[in-house]
Specification:
By secondary structure, this protein is an alpha/beta fold. The protein has helices at residues 28-34, 56-60, 71-74, 81-90, 94-107, 121-130, 174-180; strands at 2-7, 14-18, 21-26, 39-43, 46-48, 51-53, 111-115, 133-135, 166-169, 185-190, 193-197. The strands form 3 sheets. The protein has a 4-stranded mixed β-sheet with strand order 3-2-1-4. The chain has a 4-stranded antiparallel β-sheet with strand order 5-9-10-11, with no helix packed on it. A 3-stranded parallel β-sheet has the order 6-7-8, with no helix packed on it. Helix 6 links the parallel strand 7 and strand 8 (133-135). Helix 5 packs parallel to helix 6 (121-130). The protein starts with a strand and ends with a strand.
């Protein structure tokens, strides 16, 4: 089934999705007229090709993402440094579940691709299952590792026949996205599937 995605601030960059692939990119009115049977998804803000987060090892193998049921013990924010290392040493099985929760947090920040060599099976599996693309890590990382890294790394423009992988941010333009960061994400699509939607 065809799905047409359009964001309020970028109607000229609407995306028509057919299964896991981009069928067409162009002005919303033209695509809507040509594909009247397509399901329509309207979003606030801007539709982008999504972000590459170059800090996959740091965020998925060296950061503990607490289960909400552990809030009394660990809080709700990611745990880093020696405290995270202690958690993993005490119970190595926690790493896989933590990586899955970390991937969900990445998706909620418009991440559709990651970079950096992952060495732990649980983290590799979490990335693969989510359908995240794996890209080349930049030679220089400005740091520090973050779900909304600075600077943000936008992927190349979407093209017909390419993977339907993109993110929508509730901002008026890319300059505002850079200022406000990836926490403004309202939707992330990977392989044509809506894998994150803000409530």
């Amino acid at each position: 089934m065809l799905t047409l995605h359009v964001a309020e601030a970028t109607p000229e960059h609407a995306v028509l999705v057919d299964g896991a692939l981009v069928a067409a990119v162009g002005p919303y009115e033209e695509l809507a007229e040509a594909h009247q049977d397509a399901r329509l998804r309207r979003w606030p803000g801007i539709l982008t090709p999504g972000l590459l987060n170059p800090y996959a090892p740091e965020l998925l193998e060296r950061t503990y993402h607490p289960d909400p049921r552990e809030a009394d013990t660990y809080g709700t924010a990611p745990v880093t440094g020696e405290r995270a290392a202690e958690i993993f040493r005490a119970d190595p099985a926690r790493l896989g579940a933590s990586a899955r929760r970390g991937v969900q947090r990445m998706l909620a920040h418009g991440t559709v691709a990651v970079a950096g060599e992952l060495r732990v099976r649980g983290a590799v599996d979490a990335v693969r299952r989510a359908g995240l693309a794996v890209g080349r890590r930049p030679d220089v990382l400005p740091g520090p590792p973050a779900l909304s890294p600075v600077p943000l790394i936008l992927l190349p423009r979407l093209a017909p026949g390419g993977p339907a992988r993109f993110a929508v941010f509730d901002v008026p333009d890319t300059a505002a996205l850079v200022r406000r960061g990836a926490s403004t994400c309202v939707a992330t699509v990977i392989d044509g599937r809506l894998v994150y939607r803000a409530r």
